[in-house]
Amino acid sequence: MPGLPVPEVLRLATEHGWDGVELRCTPGEPVHLDLGTAERTALARQFTTSGVLPLAVCSYLRIAEPGEDGPVLAELTAHLRLAADLGAPYVRVFPRGNDATAVRRLTAIAPTATALGVRVLVETHDTHRSARAVARLAAAVGSPAVGGLWDLMHTHLAGETPADSHTALAPWLGYTQVKDIASPEDLTPLPLGSGTLPLADCLALLPPTAWVSWEYEAPWHPAAAPFAPLLARPRPS
Asked: What is the pLDDT along the chain (237 residues), one digit of tens a residue?
């Protein structure tokens, strides 16, 4: 729901029985790194009052991108502090690089994440599209402060079955993103259950207490149906 004010997001969530939301953290959105202390406190209060959890601060940081470690670690630290201020348990990052760089930086940031009470989750995405690839990073770091975010679409397109993905990532899994699409050639988001992704197989593997987020990529697919009306539709079991 790009650009939608937080109070409206919380109204939709509570009205339709959703327990949490992912927060896109980028300029132009209600949640961004330049929020001051008073703004962060006010946002945190809104989430607490509504009973809706700010599940994750979803950064666009590429943990393994080429370059010096310092700027990447500084930006990730800023995201971790924002998550802690808002009461979000996770910060999402993308890989976009090689294992050695990712492991080095994730190992370096783990003590800060632990101190702030926030986990860094590497999403199954781009250079590490499979759950096996992300699990390899988490295992190499070996810290509970670093884990994986299972994006079902990417692991499916990487050729993994849900069972394969879950087996690989379960020891480090933070939460799961689901969505639906028509085909590998058409990634326009669809209502859950109306596309080709193995949603039921994925959900059957998760414990009842697991967090599952419906990621609806409207900013990148302007032709997609408006998201808010879809919240009232029955969800697949």
From this structure: 999 999 999 999 999 999 999 999 999 999 999 999 999 999 999 999 999 999 999 999 999 999 999 999 999 999 999 999 999 999 999 999 999 999 999 999 999 999 999 999 999 999 999 999 999 999 999 999 999 999 999 999 999 999 999 999 999 999 999 999 999 999 999 999 999 999 999 999 999 999 999 999 999 998 899 999 998 876 555
Predicted TM-score (pTM) of this structure: 0.96
**Which residues touch 213 (CB under 8 Å, ≥6 apart)?**
20, 22, 55, 56, 175, 176, 177, 178
Which of these, 74, 78, 69, 130, lies nearest to 102 by C-alpha position? 69
